[in-house]
Amino acid sequence: MFLPWDYGVRNLARRPVRTVLTFLALFIVVLLILVVVGFIRGLEHSLVVSGDPEVALIYSVSSEENIESSSISSNTPALITASLGTTRKRYGIVHASPELVLGTRVQVGEQSSGLGLVRGVTKTVPLVRRSVHIVAGEWPNAGEVLIGRLVAPKLGVSESSLSIGQSIEFEGRSWRISGHFVAQGSAFESEIWCNLDDFQTATKRQDISLVALRLAANASVAELQLFCKQRTDLELRAMGETAYYESLQKHYGPVRMLAWFVVVLVSSSGVFAGMNMMYGAVAGRVREIATLQAIGYRRRAILLSLVQEGLMLASAASVFACTVGLWLVNGVAIRFTMGAFALNVDGTAILIASGVGVLIGSFGAIPPATKALRADVAMSLKAI
Amino acid sequence: MRISMMMVTFGIVFGAMGCSPSSDLASKDATKPNAKYALVSEPASAMAVGEARKTAKTDEAITLVGLIGGSSAPFVDGMAAFTIVDAEVPYCAADEACPTPWDYCCQTDAVKDNIATVQIVDESGKPVLSDARKLLNVKELSTVTVQGTVKRDKQGNLTVLATKLFVSERKK
User: Fold this and answer.
1) With contact defined as beta carbons under 8 Å apart, do A117 and A226 qualify?
2) Dihedral sign, Cα of residue A49, residue A51, residue A55, residue A59
3) Does A284 share its domain with A307?
4) Which site among B71, B128, B159 would you substitute to test the A interface, given the most A Cβ atoms closer than 10 Å to its Cβ?
5) Per mean pLDDT, which range of A113-117, A206-210, A343-347 is the poorest?
6) Measured between beta carbons, which residues in chain A are less than 8 angstroms from residue B106?
7) Residue-averaged pLDDT of chain B
8) Is residue A242 part of a domain?
9) Which residue from A2, A135, A156, A217 puts its CA 20 to 30 A from A259's CA?
């Protein structure tokens, strides 16, 4: 015979202070796990969505995976499109985007300055970077810039200081903000975009960092790679954009490992905290448990009721923590190396955090309950 | 019963020992290049890459030897093509703990004049769309001798459209 479902529910209300404290402990553990997993998922998402399988990048062979240190001739796009038929072309427009990328100090009004990532682009860039959409303002004219959604948190300044019409300074020039863009959560969102010619003038450079090409229907990155291998004099390297961001993910491998380690640590501490709370909860109910045994309830039924209590509390804490996480944590921008990304509380993050919460609630109740059930019934009935 | 158990045990042990030479043989086969593109023996009088860059002319038949390398990623993904470097150009020694010795990072100037691109082609001269590492069982710093046709460009770059290849054993 099992204890009634209501018995467990009512028991939670009988000791409101203890119930609230246990709930809070579980809530904090689940929320912490949600934040850490959201960090990992946000970083992964930022790199995954940044790569377009139809886009290939061509940059300097000596810069390895660091495009900011790449320097190639500005006639490379013309050379490649003339030599190979791998680039998409519509209505006479070649889908090739020459870009100059530079990490530089950006001054925002009188407030502060920080390291920002600036990308000089041409008007062909939307043909290649298809995830980018201008959400306010317009395409930058000479002396103007477009600001990504995550530039403000990246520079550590307020959103209002980067509103349209405001000015920022970098490379010894003042630039008016002409608009804002989003890029589906990709790495571009933490960048400042301006006209390539303007940027080359400001930086006194004539080279570019890379060419991003949108591949023609039947073309492959292999053809571009072969061209780069054959033209060793150009010292170029070709890579699919997806493969490029996958290689960046490998660089961030230790960070992800550390984050998962934090998840394990937080989960472990949560398990111990949960068990401690349950020991306290069960210790105060020795007489009650003994009475239940004396009136005929089997140990298994009493154990199940105690697990039910822990599980209900943990489930409620998990639901509450996930709601708060989605409301307050999801989308929060994090500064990271040269860019920024948004915490991503997605299905996986919710599943992991809730799973750990439910495990703490259910398994945390078993050891103390088992201990109480093993005690002698006659002695327990006399316990104070 | 005890005797029969011992016989079974000996049978298993000796059976396993008996199997080991054939498994070694299988692993040796696995390291050989695809038979369609493999040379049975190492060709004599193969030309070094550095010399070929000076003398080889377009459409000439050539036998070229070199080490796969010249950049951190010498292979073309999804196509049987790679770059080779003249064996005379030194690369980082093992005790220098360089993770990518095949990029010749300390010899970039020397590599410029001692590098060639090898593109494996089929009988009709079409590029083989298969990863060279899998097709030919080669890896970075493998010493390869290739037979094929020379292709030069105005900039002096050397490409060999190879139909056959021999992979030499690494000297220890």
Assistant:
1) no
2) positive
3) yes
4) B71
5) A113-117
6) none
7) 80
8) no
9) A156
pLDDT in tens, B40-58: 888 888 899 999 999 999 9
Neighbour-count burial of A130, counting CB atoms closer than 10 A to its CB (0-12 exposed, 13-18 middle, 19+ buried):
middle
DSSP state of B170: P
- Do A57 and A244 meet the contact criterion of CB atoms below 8 Å apart? yes
Burial class (CB in 10 A: 0-12, 13-18, 19+), B111: buried
Residue A247 CA to residue A241 CA, distance in Å, equals 10
Query: Which chain B residues in 37-66 lie under 8 Å from chain A, judged by CB atoms?
Result: none
Per-residue burial over B157-168, b if 16 or more Cβ lie within 10 Å, else e, is: bbbbbbbbbbbe
Tell me whether residues B79 and A222 touch, CB distance under 8 A: yes
Domain-terminating residue out of A186, A214, A242: A214
Q: Do A229 and B127 touch (CB under 8 A)?
A: no
Domain boundary pick from A163, A196, A214: A214
Q: Identify the domain containing residue A44 by its residue range.
A: 5-48+253-381
Same domain, A199 and A313: no
- B155 interfacial to chain A (CB closer than 8 Å): yes
With beta carbons under 8 A apart, name residues in chain A contacting B157: 230-233
Query: Two tokens at B161?
Result: 């459209």
pLDDT at A125: 94
- Two tokens, residue A144: 């103007």
How many domains in chain A?
2
Q: Quick one: fold of B47-168?
A: OB fold (Dihydrolipoamide Acetyltransferase, E2P) (2.40.50)
Tell me the pLDDT of chain A averaged across its residues.
87
Q: Could you report the per-residue pLDDT of B86-118, keeping only the tens digit for each?
A: 999 998 887 778 888 888 888 888 888 899 999
Q: What ipTM, to 2 d.p.?
A: 0.76
